[in-house]
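Box 3.1 A note on notation
Throughout this textbook, protein chains are presented in two layers. The first layer is the amino acid sequence; the second is a token string describing backbone geometry. Keep the layers aligned when reading.
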Amino acid sequence: MAPTPTRDAVLDAALQLLAEDGPGGVTIARITGLSGVSNGSIYHHFGSREGVLLALLVDCFADLVATLAQALDDRPARECIRDLVARHLAWVREHPGKAAVLYRVPLDATVLSGTADSQRAVHTKDLAAAPLVRWMRARQTAGELRSVPDWALDPIVLAPVHEAARRGLLSAEAEEQVAAMVWAGLEA
């Protein structure tokens, strides 16, 4: 969905509420009060509270992946992976509200329901992750990385960093350990 003033106002309000009170604090009434957007407009643009959270989740994921993609260039794969982990943890430190979306919004049955909205969200996340997948494929073909299926990008590369972020392990020492774990999962 293309950005609009209404969409941005709703998502900004939801992000603020999530940062203040967690997922339970994100209600249509509170979004309406904070954003100034009418109840009807929220339902028109997002369909439901879960639609707002889903849109926020997709936007935050896309922002994170855009940051991660900056680490993937023609340097040796190990250096790129180390840079990717560093950028990921830096993004978490610099964007605590957006990180809360990725780590605190439950992917419950509504979000993962298979509805048209959730299918669009999965497709949008896949498009956002495409540069990472392409880089990994190229490095696998070159023999620098172990051959793993595309779906393994998340559990092998992102999951260790996600878990460190969830636990608040954002130090340089944690960064080194996570980078070593990710590399161990990818090394040819």
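Residues 50 and 111 are 7 Å apart (CA to CA). The radius of gyration is 18 Å.
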